[in-house]
Amino acid sequence: xxxxxxxxxxxxxxxxxxxxxxxxxxxxxxxxxxxxxxxxxxxxxxxxxxxxxxxxxxxxxxxxxxxxxxxxxxxxxxxxxxxxxxxxxxxxxxxxxxxxxxxxxxxxxxxxxxxxxxxxxxxxxxxxxxxxxxxxxxxxxxxxxxxxxxxxxxxxxxxxxxx
Length: 163
Hints:
Layout: H1 4-14, E1 18-19, E2 33-34, E3 49-50, H2 53-60, H3 62-71, H4 75-81, H5 84-89, H6 92-106, E4 109-120, E5 123-132, E6 135-146, E7 149-159
Antiparallel strand pairs: 1-2, 3-4, 4-5, 5-6, 6-7
Helix pairs in contact: 4-6
């Protein structure tokens, strides 16, 4: 049976994890330097920044369409017009159930005003202070902008905290 050092060390050397000198198999290895692999820098991730006004305005076209479909209770229409990424993330029946729950809890939309818009690349997050029939809420819309087109990537009600 071969010693463990004769089976593992050549593998570590081949992978570049250990620096090994060429020796004949009969000669015992007296020194092996194990080096930690070079640290791979993490990819740069941009933090959200205030959205360019033109980008935010393009993204914002999604919100009135969303609210109109919400008021007409055609939640499947919202879902079907959303970006494919959103549809892959959440099945339609779950989205519709979520929207029906908001409807039961909050009622009709009465007014909505954008309070914030941030962006990372062409993905814009819009926050709205929205007044519903049964009280105020903060809504968050995540939208992908491509030229003059905008598609919903995500929606959530940030408050009331039950959502």
